[in-house]
Amino acid sequence: QVLLVFAEEDEQSNGFRWACDKAGFRCNLARTPQSALECFLDKHHDIIIIDHRHSRYFDAEALCRSIRTTKASENTVIICVVQRHTDREESSILPLITAGFTRRYVENSSRMACYNELIQLKFGQVQAQFKLRACNSLFTALEKSQEAIEITSEDHVIQYVNPAFETMMGYQIGELIEKELTEVPINEKKADFLDTINSCIKIGKEWQGMYYAKKKNGDSIQQNVKILPVIGQGGKIRHYVSISRLCNDNNKVEKTCECIQAESQTDTQTCRHKDMRKGSLDVRSTTSRGSDGISQRRRSSMARVHSMTIEAPITKVINIINAAQESSPMPVAEALDRALEILRTTELYSPQLGTKDEDPHTSDLVGGLMTDGLRRLSGNEYILSAKQTHQVAGSLSSPISLNDIPPRITQAMENEEQWDFDIFELEAATHKRPLVYLGLKIFARFGICEFLNCSESTLRSWLQVIEANYHSSNSYHNSTHSADVLHATAYFLSKERVKQTLDPIDEVAALIAATVHDVDHPGRTNSFLCNAGSELAILYNDTAVLESHHAALAFQLTTRDGKCNIFKNMERNEYRTLRQVIIDMVLATEMTKHFEHVNKFVNSINKPLAALEENGNNGDGESIKTVLRSPENRILIKRMLIKCADISNPCRPREQCIEWAGRISEEYFAQTDEERRQGLPVVMPVFDRNTCSIPKSQLSFIDYFIIDMFDAWDAFADLPNLMEHLNNNIKYWKGLDGRNLRVLRPPP
């Protein structure tokens, strides 16, 4: 809001009125000091422009001083309009500043000059005042905090302490402000204690631990302290924030001091997608740090249980919290109770969906993909696959040789090493059998036959058997999807960071797992099969039904006939290792463990690598190799790789993304139709072909599953082209949704 104080209307006042209209600012006009003051006290304007050119009308400086005496003007920008003098020396601006003006404006009635002045004010002084105004809320929070808070400059001069700090240390705020820190942390047990703290905070990391400090009366107290460096102008540390609370003498647990990486509030990975998400999980905020603290024995019948030597990490965490509860004030104890309730659940990695305000597309999609269904509500049973006759090598026609591939198919596979490779062109050229041809080419490129010690004809027969057991009648889960996932897997395996990490046996396992990961998929979800009481659901106890079936059937089809047994010449132990990796990767495609896999990847791989890079160790090959090559981390990387390959459709070029969206929607529509025909619970009611918005469903899937996962995978494997496609596709779906269109493409 702008207040113009001009005694008479002229070109200058009209120029500012026009500028306010153009900028969209609300404007009031006052002719006298009294009306100006009354109007300001009523409206609390952000900008006041006072005419100082004609002193015969009113005293502009006296008016400014009057406004400045009011509490409401604390964050108001006041501008003084002065005459333009070309025939005399420039006068000092100090009297205007002393009167309370923020700046002066030399008269210029040009409309654009007035407009430019207002815009500069908005993005300069006014925006700065908004931030200062917000500081009042922050300081109110600090004043009421029960933790002692101290803020010092980069030179360790005290600039602020809150009442809790005064109470804890026995000082008054006036005794501390502008004083240098003279009391330093003292730890009699460790001579290098101060060096440990300084080595952390001086390089921009926070420090947390126990230390002893002296109160004003000389008493020594033990504190649990966290010291956080604050990065400011020039990217340098400008302040230190110290947060302290007293330790209870009855529960002194010696803790190791730790350096915790301070996370930047302007993290580019977070900001990049902030405008495209509703509330998806931010994987960077999930931590799983362990603790070596020794939990205190509790004087209860549970003591022996809590001190068992065979203890899971989560049990140790719960024991530590239990011990902390005993000596905590009531609000903290209640908060820890709530934390314990969460920790004692089994779904530690799965975000909880809201019940009322959550987007129905998200809740239906997530419910359908991440649960094993409701119990059966009718006598209808869905019989699947268990009694079907699967295609075997002997029942198939002779496979074609890699050297005899028709020219059209060869041409369709020319750029298969590129991410923008068009799988649908290959699907058309091969009459919906792209897996054999693409498999032959990719497996040859990676030397799979040489590793497995099998002939090309055996590999061709195997690929044919696997492809024949994909259902071409499925709109989405068919051999084209398998070929697409195989292509994405091969592309990821060619990235430098992935090549540094995986061994040849890992590459072989990844390509085989991608090929078989959805074999014999019925085009229905796990929830559907469980609700229908299918034989597969009964066989696998309603747990990872399809994924278990894909892995088991793949090995059954491979090993039952020597003509297609690509493993028959492998040494036994090597085969068992390969089989274990393939099964693990196929099972990783099950969506109920989605967040567990992503969070473990971020915490075990992304964060340690980022810490090494921030510490200037990007050239330290050994440190990076330690992170990448540990057996546990290689498992996480392989799981993440196939997960990203499996649901990479939103990261494909737009036309491919749209085609895949149409296919998966049709498969879900067909499932909803069948559920209603059979009287089964409808797992995803939003996927009704008559009412479903495909753009909304795509945005929900991307928001909930894709963004965080590909942020993490991109940070690891460096995939800017995929992220660009993802951004473009999000904009495309948002554009359709913004026009309330429910279809794949806008009308011509």
Low-confidence stretches: 183-191, 249-310, 374-387
Tell me the Rg in angstroms. Answer: 34 Å
Task: For the record, give the distance between the C-alpha atoms at the N and C termini, rounded to a whole number.
Answer: 44 Å
Instruction: Work out the strand percent.
Output: 5-15%
Give the strand order of the largest sheet, numbering strands 1, 2, ... along the chain.
7-6-10-9-8-11
The count of β-strands is: 11
Query: CATH architecture of the largest domain, please?
Result: Orthogonal Bundle
- Specify the CATH homologous superfamily of the largest domain: 3'5'-cyclic nucleotide phosphodiesterase, catalytic domain
Mean pLDDT: 82
Provide the CATH top-level class of the largest domain: Mainly Alpha
- Helix count, DSSP H or I runs of 4 or more residues: 30
| Sheet/helix structural class | alpha/beta
CATH fold node name of the largest domain: Catalytic domain of cyclic nucleotide phosphodiesterase 4b2b
Q: What percentage of residues falls in helices of 4 or more residues?
A: 40-55%
- Envelope shape: globular
Largest sheet composition? 6 strands, antiparallel
- What is the number of independent domains? 3
Pathway: Purine metabolism; 3',5'-cyclic AMP degradation; AMP from 3',5'-cyclic AMP: step 1/1
Binding site for Zn(2+) 2: 518
EC number: 3.1.4.-
Domain PAS: 134-204
